[in-house]
């Protein structure tokens, strides 16, 4: 059941900030997931996300760290 619901999930990424310094870079974003349930409701979840990138010796940006923390429900946040 969970896999079926995930197949119709919608994810929206709102990039808040991107910056680099030397061989390190980061992106700060807010992520919203919307998962429809079998009873035609939608479960909405908000996350704060930080992604850290590191440039390798060939100049390619590689993912170093990606972490997301769940925000309060949209109803509790007044959305």
Outline the structure in words.
This protein is mostly beta strands and 79 residues long. Helices cover 13% and strands 62% of the residues. It has helices spanning 2-7, 74-77; strands at 10-21, 24-36, 42-55, 61-70. The chain has a 4-stranded antiparallel beta sheet, with no helix packed on it. β3 (42-55) and β4 form a beta hairpin. The longest helix has 6 residues, at 2-7. The model has no long low-confidence stretch (mean pLDDT 88).
Low-pLDDT residue spans: none
Structural class: mainly beta
Strand order across the largest sheet: 1-2-3-4
**Shape label:** elongated
Binned, the helix content reads 10-25%
Using only C-alpha atoms, the radius of gyration works out to: 16 Å
- Characterize the largest beta sheet: strand count, sense, and whether it forms a barrel: 4 strands, antiparallel
Task: State the helix count.
Answer: 2
What is the CA–CA distance across the termini? 28 Å
Percent strand equals over 45%
Order of helices and strands: HEEEEH
Summarize the structure.
This protein has helices spanning 2-7, 74-77; strands spanning 10-21, 24-36, 42-55, 61-70. With 79 residues, the protein is mainly beta. The relative contact order is 0.21.
């Amino acid at each position: 059941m969970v896999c079926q619901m995930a197949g119709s999930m919608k994810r929206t990424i709102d990039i808040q900030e991107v910056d680099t310094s030397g061989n390190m870079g980061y992106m700060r974003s807010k992520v919203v997931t919307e998962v429809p349930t079998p009873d035609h409701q939608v479960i909405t979840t908000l996350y704060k996300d930080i992604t850290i990138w590191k440039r390798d010796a060939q100049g390619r940006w590689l993912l170093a760290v990606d972490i997301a923390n769940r925000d309060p429900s949209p109803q509790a946040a007044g959305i």
